[in-house]
Amino acid sequence: MTLQEGLGMQQIRYGLVGAGYFGSALGRALAALPDARVTVVHDPLHAEALASELGARVTESTEALCSDPEVDAVIVASPNWAHVEPVILAAQNGKHIFCEKPIALGYDDCLRMVEAADRAGVLFMAGHVMNFMNGVRRAKELIAQGAIGDVLFCRAVRNGWEEPQPEVTWKKKRELSGGHLYHHIHELDLVQSILGPATEATMVGGNVAHRGPQFGDEDDLLVITLEFGGRAFAALEYGSAFRWPEHHVLIEGTLGAIRIDLQDVGVELRAPGRRESFLLHRSEAEDRDRARIYSDSSMDGAIMYGKPSLVPPLWLQGVIEEELSYFHGLLLGGEPLPEFAALTDGSAATAAIATADALSLSLREGRKVRVAEITGVDGGRSRHSAGEEGR
Ligand SMILES: NC(=O)c1ccc[n+]([C@@H]2O[C@H](COP(=O)([O-])OP(=O)(O)OC[C@H]3O[C@@H](n4cnc5c(N)ncnc54)[C@H](O)[C@@H]3O)[C@@H](O)[C@H]2O)c1
């Protein structure tokens, strides 16, 4: 099946790999869309409850789900380490794919996934959900209109403090989640969606305050600088070793600046003679809900780890709805939007993982790393050929 033949279907039957905190939310959001059905669920621990809620069948293996004739598209929401296998199996079986972030925990795996989808001619969308926040879309639109001139610098901060957890989940283990940088790849993806792929990457940090049996082994304090061919720069901070919680992205241009506040919630443009504030999410209620969660005791700054027993907050359900409506719309033959092209041509996924890998290498070897050392191509461009095939 080519991509063109595959798109424009009347109804999409979804298979869900992973039915924990996020997979369940994705499944429920899909089931609520017109012309969508979740037909099959695979999860070694939590498939039954969601499948019965959504009127779906349970399969015992990823292979069975990916080759199921009643599945047109596979939604991958298994833990981060377990994305590669279902994506490649789905592609080999001619199924369209939506995969949660981080797409992979290494560039070579990411490339194999993108190339498998390319070869099969199926749609492969990266679940970089931040792109679907209304305020982020508006900020990028303003930047494209020249409202802040040429972007020179971005600062992204996602900091909080983490107390000992009753149980150490896969999300705290570097080998399974990739740690803060990969698990929260949103800000890195956003910065690169504005400035393009980074050319040089430097990271310092380590696990400075979360050692011992009540914690995983991820680094809890990461300080990053990125260079963009000498024309622009970025500084990012991530971690759970910060007692002063902060979560924002600041974009500085030659004519003005935009600050996306993910903690006190809202977006602001400042330029000489111009000030504009707008919502981050779809409504005052969603923005307020987010601000409340950050300010009450349910979060330590930007540190929140969903568990299978939890339901995502209102604002996150809203963004999931926007994101999946777009994916579903493409499968039904909808018009692709240029603003989201990088999510479906493989470039956002590969650029994010390439830069994350370059940063990891920088930390390990204590030096600045050219992203080309990871991708094999100078200028920070990924060596994949996804865009050329028009996925
Ligand atoms: N975009 C976002 O904002 C966002 C938010 C939360 C989670 N996520 C992503 O969603 C994915 C799932 O995270 P979560 O929060 O639901 O975690 P979770 O631990 O709540 O759920 C993971 C589920 O996967 C199941 N599982 C384990 N191994 C599996 C396998 N090999 N195949 C299929 N299922 C398997 C587990 O039994 C569990 O039910 C992760 O990739 C995570 O990064 C994204």
From TrEMBL:
It comes from the Bacteria. Residues 12-128 form the Gfo/Idh/MocA-like oxidoreductase N-terminal domain. InterPro entries: Gfo/Idh/MocA-like_OxRdtase_C, Gfo/Idh/MocA-like_OxRdtase_N, Gfo/Idh/MocA_Oxidoreductases, NAD(P)-bd_dom_sf. Pfam families: GFO_IDH_MocA (PF01408), GFO_IDH_MocA_C (PF02894). Residues 140-370 form the Gfo/Idh/MocA-like oxidoreductase C-terminal domain. Belongs to the Gfo/Idh/MocA family. This is Gfo/Idh/MocA family oxidoreductase. It comes from Leifsonella bigeumensis.
